[in-house]
Amino acid sequence: MKKLAIALGATVLAAGLAPTVVFAEEASASTSVEAKKGDMLYSADGKRVGNVYRVNDNGDVQLIYRSKMITIAADTLSEVEGKLTTSLSLADVRAIG
Hints:
Elements: H1 2-28, E1 40-42, E2 48-55, E3 61-65, E4 68-72, E5 77-80, E6 83-86, H2 90-96
Parallel strand pairs: 1-6
Antiparallel strand pairs: 1-2, 2-3, 3-4, 5-6
């Protein structure tokens, strides 16, 4: 029961902070970003997603996530504090894979 309360509290806290993070990234998304093979991709919540395996002609990046090849759309990519970042949360990335 104690673990459930902690997990629920963390989920509520993370949900409350998510809009702030997204707005901050949208403000900095004006810089054009060119992803390269081998770049580390970070989620909107600052978590490592994985290394870029391939960059498609349209700028979409592909990476292997949980033993599956997934594609992250180029229009979600930006550079935040010098890091290649997607506007998707880690939960959104998990839903893709």
